[in-house]
Write a structure and sequence with these properties.
The structure is a homodimer.
Chain A (H helix, E strand, L loop, with lengths): L6 H10 L3 H6 L10 H17 L3 H7 L2 E3 L2 E3 L4 H10 L18 H14 L1 H20 L2 H13 L3 E5 L15 E4 L5 E11 L9 E7 L12 E6 L1 E3 L5 E4 L2 E6 L10 E6 L5 E6 L5 H37 L20 H33 L3 H36 L11 H8 L9 H12 L6 H19 L8 H25 L1 H6 L1 H26 L4 H14 L3 H16 L1 H4 L3
Parallel strand pairs in A: 3-6
Antiparallel strand pairs in A: 1-2, 4-5, 5-11, 5-12, 6-7, 7-12, 8-9, 10-11
């Protein structure tokens, strides 16, 4: 069973939940006139399904291999990457001045999803390149932009992000990599970086490393970190490749999943110092990093959606083919397809509803990013920016959490077959498992949401989002469409819980930060359940008005009645979290 | 970080939740006089930690290998297995007439847990042998018992279970393996069996296969299945090994986890028929299988507990060593151990509380099995038997579900390190993943609970268990011990939900089976949350009366306030399940 992009649901979600139609109506998406969006998605889906998806299993089996400092990607990967960049997919949202197509994030979000469904490990490399493009574009000098941007946008070169060191993971205060000023205005970089995704490989002739390091006179902590561009090969004035730079891949990790994505330990400056160029200002490197954080986190959220979609398709296909037992009421011959058994159907419906809810959350963030860039009114830009900031940690954490859950359920639907690697279901679980960890663990996302995002505009941002959910709930309550069941009732409970939990959090934040932090993860999930439920309900309402597609209503109902029901439980856990979690001295004794 | 058996918690749970003290007071455990139970557990724990646990990683890395029909276990495994059987651990509960020690299941349960914590793949083989012992003991002829039991009890030979065929997994109706009567009273067996755990290996000189097959004149369906004993080597009258039997390992699976446990495709009768002996009566093979089902399912539940305990220990150790950031209120120097961060502590507490709740559920089943065998009053035996039958699917499914969840959370606590195989956290997740599938998927457990177990004694069995939970809740409500927080309140909500959901299920079962089946999985979880919460509360009450160990109260509180809070949500999902899940025709269209 190969992968087929769910173009219909992607488009429906883009148009009716993420506001692609409104964006166009507001004149903010002139590139998408006519049938541009569907055409792009159809073509991306075809490429993903036909060219990339077949490479996913060999990518897992063979993996990327390091020998004598050279990393070799799995058979077929170089060719696929070249075909993908030749077709122009790398530069979809990039500045047309550097060869990009300047399309909205909304369209890109759907494309990122489809590349990752086809092969998570394949699609991961270009995500890092996208971050490098953004950093160089926003903060790089004219010289750096002219030298690197066009090649990065075309995908002829790839980019990396070098943050982590053994002692500095979630906490970059502890960063030790050093940078020294050279007389010619460049820098020399020294140090070791770990977990560098696609730090070394054979997909491109050059690799553009973005590296965080400290200058000798830098202040301690994160206010003393600078960002440098360090190419694998120096670039001559005519754009040709020059000397090999003093950076090498020391080893690659043996990982649970994404075997084809080389996770490298990189060593800088072993032979006198790697030549680097400052990006932005000295000691302001973290700010440069943060400008691309939202986008990278959205992309990781989309990886969660992607792996869930892939796992769902595979499980559904299996459950419709595999026959065991006879489901009550089954009228066919012999054994039923296992999809007919209520418990298996419950699993499939849960997989689908959660995948679609996560998709809606991610696409909503993409829309907010588009408005933040495209609105002409500064107030509207600010509002959109804050909305993106608020929703990004939710989209990242919820989507990657359900990525793991849905992939695991996919294994379960396959029964014994799911545990056998040849089936492919287990690979999705292994691949999915990284996404809750990298680009800020989901615990960090929850803390970010509670500490930094709830206070935005004094709470008006979050209250605005909740108010919109209420409108949706009211619309469902007033809808006469059959099939919604208790959707309105259950979603109202969820939004009520979210509202009370939000008030609790805002109050706790100042006086009792530990109380807020103890419940942060549950709060993020509660937010996702309410907003995810409202998003599916929105789709159900449009479907009811429109062609009456009952599957969309059924999905909204399933989410509200079977998934979002957890909301009041989360509220209780949040409010009580301080007592249960707080007494640290006692609770961790056996 | 190696594994240390949690002997204190095991014993406390055995004594105060699973009623080991009561069993002894009732004169039903004469073997456990004095300090026998703690002595056995200490010794088992030492053996598990010192001898088995160090082999777990190489077992994963090298795995069992098939070459020319011969399966070789990983380096060190033969020696460890020999040392383990030499120490007498294989025959702990077996009949002393055949060299066993006749100890209660309660003690065995704790030992099974500790072997599986040390190495899931290692401990799995003896679990199959235990099933074979039970079947031969209960249904085998005098000849079979004399020929095989002593060797199986000592562990000199191992046993296997051969049920599954490609078309017959959860549904044994579709079984096709054939048996023919031979003139000498033996049988000839033909057919292919898949997923045969330890079907071939080098740990023992002989392997005793128990095989389900059909006689030529057998009725269709499961009433036409017979059980046969098929040894790898025929056994001469003097007990020495004779000819190689016509059974061979065709291939072994490449699996997500438990790499050291060879999962074999076995071929019977390719060269004229494998010689087999009937166990029990013709066409009654499934009944023979079912006599050992409860026990095997309990053991798989214990595997869930075991892997959760191992993952928890590893994560706790890491979180106390690894330093990142500064937790609010942390007063030490430099960065805090990550265990000080509320979100990490929440994960650790959740891991521990769920592990301990699952342990309590499994040990409760073991106690019921002991009483079912040891009570002298027939009514008491029947009641205990039904209690074991009721609780077994709950213990199996909940424990293995949390095994996966806890192991996954263990990966999360490790951050990026968790995704790197050398750390070992990922192996626990991979190993744990099988336990929700085999020995009856957890969906099958839920169906068994609802369809077969709730109706026992007209519902009196389940009502009795719920009534006991109420007593515990009332005792917590009346306790003056500090630290319980809202434990009583939350548990009362959970028991109320369970009681209403039970009434709903009993009512739906007859008239609307699909409605009951749609909510079966959620119902099982609800039951486990209420009973798990009550079990931890029982421990907390004893601790409060006793030495006031605050960690036990804290764990009870955490479970009640942060985990069992989901109970009302599950009740809602169960009652609404029919509508949301039921409309199968619509809901699986994209």
């Amino acid at each position: 069973m190969t992968y087929r992009a769910p173009v219909a649901d992607m488009l429906f979600t883009l148009r009716h939940v993420a506001g692609l139609d409104r964006l166009a109506a507001d004149g903010l998406a002139p590139e998408l006139e006519g049938d541009m969006a569907p055409a792009i998605l159809e073509e991306a889906g075809r490429f993903a399904g036909d060219v990339i998806a077949p490479l996913n299993r060999i990518g897992d089996k063979v993996g990327s291999q390091l020998r004598d400092g050279v990393v070799t990607t799995p058979p077929g990967w170089r060719e696929a990457y070249k075909a993908w960049t030749d077709a122009g997919w790398n530069g979809l949202t990039a500045d047309p001045d550097f060869g990009g197509q300047g399309l909205p994030q909304l369209v890109q979000a759907a494309c990122v999803e489809t590349w990752n469904s086809a092969s998570f490990a394949f699609a991961l490399g270009p995500l890092l390149t996208a971050g490098a493009i953004e950093a160089v574009k926003a903060h790089g000098s004219e010289h750096l932009q002219q030298t690197y941007l066009a090649k990065l946008v075309s995908g002829e070169w790839m980019g990396t992000m070098n943050l982590t060191e053994p002692q500095a993971g979630s906490d970059l205060n502890a960063l030790r990599a050093k940078a020294e000023r050279a007389p010619d205005g460049t820098y020399r970089i020294f140090g070791q970086k770990i977990y560098i995704t696609y730090g070394e490989h054979d997909l491109t002739d050059n690799i553009v490393h973005l590296v965080l390091a400290r200058l000798p006179d830098a202040p301690a902590g994160t206010r003393g970190i600078s960002l440098f561009l360090v190419p694998k090969f120096l670039v001559n004035p005519d754009g040709s490749l020059g000397d090999r730079n003093d950076v090498r891949c020391h080893s690659i990790e043996h990982k649970l999943g994404i075997h084809a994505s080389p996770t490298c330990t990189m060593v800088y400056g072993d032979e006198g110092g790697a030549v680097g160029w400052l990006i932005g200002e000295e000691n302001r490197g973290l700010a440069c990093m943060f400008t691309m954080m939202n986008n990278a986190r959205l992309n990781v959220g989309l990886q969660g959606v992607a792996i869930a979609e892939r796992a769902f398709q595979q499980a559904l296909h299996y459950a419709q083919e595999r026959r065991q037992g006879r489901a009550p009421g089954y009228t066919g011959e012999g054994m039923s397809p296992i999809a007919e058994h209520p418990d298996v159907r419950r699993m499939l419906l849960r997989m689908r509803a959660q995948t679609q809810a996560a998709r809606a959350l991610c696409y909503r963030v993409a829309e907010a990013l588009d408005r933040a860039h495209r609105e002409t009114d500064p107030a509207a830009r600010k509002a959109a920016n804050e909305r993106a900031a608020l929703l990004t940690p939710i989209a990242k954490a919820y989507s990657t959490d359900i990525g793991v859950e849905v992939a695991s359920m996919g294994v379960q639907v396959h029964g014994g077959m799911g545990f056998v690697e040849e089936t492919g279901a287990a690979q999705h679980l292994r691949d999915a498992r990284i996404a809750t960890i990298y680009e800020g663990t989901n615990g960090i996302q929850a803390i970010d949401l509670v500490q930094r995002k709830l206070p935005l505009s004094g709470g008006d941002t979050v209250r605005g989002v909740i108010a919109e959910m209420r409108e949706t709930v009211n619309a469902v309550a007033q809808s006469n469409a059959p099939g919604f069941g208790k959707t309105a009732e259950r979603l109202r409970d969820a939004v009520d819980s979210l509202e009370r939990a939000t008030a609790f959090m805002m109050e706790a934040l100042g006086a009792r930060p530990n109380d807020a932090l103890a419940g942060a993860t549950d709060y993020l999930k509660l937010f996702a359940l309410a907003l995810g439920g409202a998003s599916l309900a929105t789709k159900g309402l449009v479907a009811a008005d429109d062609s009456g597609q009952p599957a969309r209503i059924a999905s909204a109902r399933f989410f509200a009645e079977q998934v979002a029901t957890e909301a009041p439980a989360l509220e209780r856990a949040i409010v009580d979290g301080a007592g249960a979690v707080g007494d640290g001295a006692l609770v961790l004794v056996a």
